[in-house]
Amino acid sequence: MADWIAEDFNQILKACITLFIIFIMILIITRIFGLMTFAKMTSIDFASTIAVGSVIAAVVLNNQHSILKGALCLFLIVFVQFIVSLLMRKSSFLRKLLTNKPKLLMFDGKILYHNLDKANISKPDLMARIRTANVIDINNIKAVVLEATGDVSVIYNSDDSEMSDLLLEGVEKT
């Protein structure tokens, strides 16, 4: 029966060395392709980050995968992400096809329930996000936006100054 608490020292040492080498590979790949490699800007970025984590776990924890195979997979994942990102910058069709559009969840202190439903967000979840933004008065909220990355942005102001229209450019309002 396999011991699920302890492991052979050689296996632990191999996992640590593998992790160290893979970590160095990630640093090299990040230097080649830039800091945006692990940014969470689009669904492609999100998918590649998940894939990178899966490859790292598989190589470190599974003896049947070599470091070279893992490094090649990491490089290919990031390379594909880089190429797709490049194509998305050049093609508005591809950008629309592969990216989510930010959604307006609140505007001028009013909850847009239709957009909450479309985004599959409950009112208690929305209120939790607003609380994490340290909003004191809900009437001070100019806008709450569910970003394309899944993050929630809360724009608020305690005085009556107008919000720049540029902040909501590209945001789905209805």
In short:
This protein has 174 residues and is an alpha+beta fold. The protein has six helices and four strands.
Number of helices: 6
Q: Mean of residue pLDDT? A: 89
Q: Give the radius of gyration.
A: 22 Å
Cα distance, first to last residue?
A: 58 Å
Largest β-sheet summary: 4 strands, antiparallel
Biggest sheet strand order reads: 2-1-3-4
Find the count of extended strands (DSSP E, 2+ residues): 4
Give the count of structural domains: 2
Strand residue percentage: 5-15%
Subcellular location: Cell membrane
Keywords: Cell membrane, Membrane, Transmembrane, Transmembrane helix
Transmembrane segments: 12-32, 44-61, 67-88
Domain YetF C-terminal: 90-164
How would you sum up this structure, described in words?
By secondary structure, the chain is α+β, with helices and mostly antiparallel strands. It has 2 domains: 9-97; 103-168, CRO Repressor (2-Layer Sandwich), CATH 3.30.240.20. The protein is 53% helix and 10% strand. It has helices spanning 9-33, 43-61, 67-90, 92-98, 113-119, 123-132, and strands spanning 103-107, 110-111, 141-146, 152-156. Strands 2-1-3-4 form a 4-stranded antiparallel beta sheet. A hairpin with a 2-residue loop joins strand 1 (103-107) and strand 2 (110-111). Helix 2 (43-61) packs antiparallel against helix 3 (67-90) and helix 3 packs across helix 4 (92-98).
Note the main attributes of this structure.
174 residues; CRO Repressor; 2 domains; 4 strands; elongated; DUF421; transmembrane; cell membrane
What is this structure's SSE topology?
Elements (H helix, E strand, L loop, with lengths): L8 H25 L9 H19 L5 H24 L1 H7 L4 E5 L2 E2 L1 H7 L3 H10 L8 E6 L5 E5 L18
Helix pairs in contact: 1-2, 1-3, 2-3, 3-4
